[in-house]
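Researcher: Next entry in the queue.
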Amino acid sequence: MTSANSSILTILAALMVVSLTQASAAKVTCTMNAISGRQVSGTCSVFGGQVTSFIGTGTGSFPLPGTNITYTIDANGRSMLFECASQSDILTVDSSVYSGQTINNCEPPLIEFRGCSNAAVINTKFTDITRSNAQPDNCEVSQFGPCVAVVGSVNQTEDWTFSSNKTTFTTTIVSSLQPSAVSRLGGAIAVLKKDSIGAVQAVVTGTTFTTTSCDLGGAIHTAGVSLTVLDTTFTTNSAVDGGSIHFTGAADAQFVVQRCTFTTQKATANGGSIAVYGGNFTITDSDFSEGRATQGACVWLNQCASYTKDQVVNNKWTDCSTQFTTLCCPANGNVWSST
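Model: Structure for this entry, 339 residues:
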């Protein structure tokens, strides 16, 4: 066999592997409703395959046929956990509605993805969702806010993503904000790299957060994740730290905010709108107004090395402190004003 023929066979073999990998990837779309305090019900449809219907409390973990995804409905009949054993399957929650739900301090969030490398929530509405202070005896306090949690697992050896697009969170809150050993994460969305090996990218686009609250990140909390937030609106959100966004990342994690609006945000500690711990930070073409915090009325960074002046440009700041920390100076191309 010539070397040319050997090379062709090698390429064909590689293409066959790619083809088989793509063929084995399932595309799943779930539409779920839990309205006015009622139990969750809905369907999960596998592209070209089976439709699975569900309602209320389950009795264990159930597979979605034709996929490597299982789902579990919590005993409360409203919270749903998706667990993914494959890094190829694509799971989207689309056009779902959650309203008038109260979960106690130990129950899981309404939607949780574990080990899911291609998960998304789109065109979905969360309204009047509360994590209360109620805490049954001997229960373990949840580390998440009441809505969406995304948690990495050891099976995720490759890079993975989560996205929120055109989703609305209105009055999604934790009843009392308090710094504690178990701080709740993300009043609307929490994304944690956790045990995964691959790098993580979370993208939030065209999403609206209004009156959301949590201990860390009134709207969004990320840990070990690169985060991009585009064309998104934040209004009257609050937290102990990071009134709207609480970002924690390693040195190579990227945090980008572009064309966003932050209005009347509050943190009792740092970052009325945004608190940044590590990573590399960019804000462009965004409006911030009426931030309140002990440090960093609108934005607070735990280290000035998180950005250079050309990374915070063309923003409008109204009633915000002109320094992100006592060490960082205002960046170029910004407009600072006071009402």
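Model: Residues 26-134+143-337 form one domain.
Researcher: Noted, moving on.
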